[in-house]
Amino acid sequence: MYKRNLQILPEYIEDPSVNLIVSLINLMTSSKIMSGDPQLKDMTLKEIKKKFKENNITYTIYPTKDGRLKIRKPVQICRKEESDLLIELFRYYYGHDPDIDISVQGIYEEWIKYFKTTFVDTGHRSSLTCERYKSDWNKYYAGSDLASSDISNLKASKIKTFYAKISANETLTRRSLNNIKSILNQIYDYAVDHDYVSSNIARSVRTTDLICREEDNEDLVYSDDERYRIINQALKEDDVFARAIFLMFSLCVRIGELRSLKWSDIDWENRTVFIHAQIVRRKGDDGNYYFSYVNRTKGKKKEANRIQPLSDEAISLLKKQRKDNPFGEYIFMYNGDAVKTNTVNHHLKRICEKVGVKYLSSHKIRFWSVVNMSKEFNPAEVQYMAGHLDPATTDHYRKRVSRIGGVDTDKWNELYGLAK
């Protein structure tokens, strides 16, 4: 109480006891701010000297006529205390105070707070992404030698060794390894932006030579026959979930985009649907998860919005759905809210079991759509309809067309057969 109130009192207060208290408080506060605990300062001084020695940094301290200490090279610094002198020299070489934790762990803690406030809290990134980063950090980085390393001294070889260790014996898929790498890449980006390091060496570390576990379902996709059996069963059941599954098989959409569709997105005259939003799951400040409508697709830019045509069957299905749900906020609703992804997948699994098809999640419906478009349309058209901002993403699907469907037998025989 005294500290908070007395600091704002003018110094000319006549009561000497009050002045004494103010002076003592100011002295203690100033001492704490300027130099901290003497033992801590001695420790910092030892750490500074040790770091200079490790990095072959040499310096000479000269006394001045007025009793201060001075360094002339590489920069002129003059201070009363040796510790203050070396702290300034430390700042010169490393761009920050020696008491700032610039271990990989320390920078991670700064970065993850920045990521949440800058991207998650503003709705630009999902809270699930943030939770995945935290989970991967705790599983792979936390407690490791790399995490405790000074980021300004970390070598690319040590990062490579770390990746090789966690992926040894094919314990990780390539996708998992890339997700783990992306955390360190972003930590380094943050460190560069805050002048802790001058460059991002993490992005230069090559891991293509590391052997990763093959993903069992990487190329799994519904076949045309399986799609036909699923949508025919959906037409028989004809409830809100079956209709959602049917429409998803009639478009090229993500499940979050399908859930976010509103009646205003349908252009009945031109028989098209405007895909420009998604429903995402986020974690609130209370620790609970909730669903949120965001007016952008996964691409997060307007370039990822697209208009897709509707088939005759899709128009017919939507008319039925509008009759059953004419005033709902979303096209596909259940119990007063947009249908849930897990519930759609549950009904998809049940339909698959009925018609003897191996169940794949609703994401694989989109996979089927992009792969089959890649057989019929040019890359630019596929990229637009799929809502891909990066052509490389579209090319990723196009490459799988050849792996899934093989090559044209007639062309193969023509190329390698005996001339007649």
Describe this structure in words.
The chain is mainly alpha-helical and 420 residues long. The chain has 4 domains: 1-34, no CATH class; 37-99, no CATH class; 104-204, DNA polymerase, domain 1 (Orthogonal Bundle), CATH 1.10.150; 224-257 and 310-405, Orthogonal Bundle (hpI Integrase, Chain A). The chain contains 18 helices and 10 strands. The chain has helices at residues 2-6, 16-34, 38-54, 82-94, 104-120, 127-141, 145-148, 156-166, 174-193, 224-237, 240-248, 255-259, 312-324, 341-355, 363-376, 379-386, 391-405, 409-416, and strands spanning 61-63, 69-71, 77-79, 266-267, 272-275, 278-283, 289-294, 306-309, 333-334, 337-338. Strands 1-2-3 form a 3-stranded antiparallel sheet, with helices on one face. Strands 4-5-8 form a 3-stranded antiparallel sheet. The protein has a two-stranded antiparallel sheet with strand order 6-7. Helix 5 (104-120) packs across helix 9, helix 10 runs antiparallel to helix 11 and helix 15 crosses helix 17. The longest helix has 20 residues, at 174-193. The chain is elongated and about 95 Å long. Mean pLDDT is 81; it is low at 1-13 and 27-36.
Helices and strands in order:
Blueprint: H1 2-6, H2 16-34, H3 38-54, E1 61-63, E2 69-71, E3 77-79, H4 82-94, H5 104-120, H6 127-141, H7 145-148, H8 156-166, H9 174-193, H10 224-237, H11 240-248, H12 255-259, E4 266-267, E5 272-275, E6 278-283, E7 289-294, E8 306-309, H13 312-324, E9 333-334, E10 337-338, H14 341-355, H15 363-376, H16 379-386, H17 391-405, H18 409-416
Antiparallel strand pairs: 1-2, 2-3, 4-5, 5-8, 6-7, 9-10
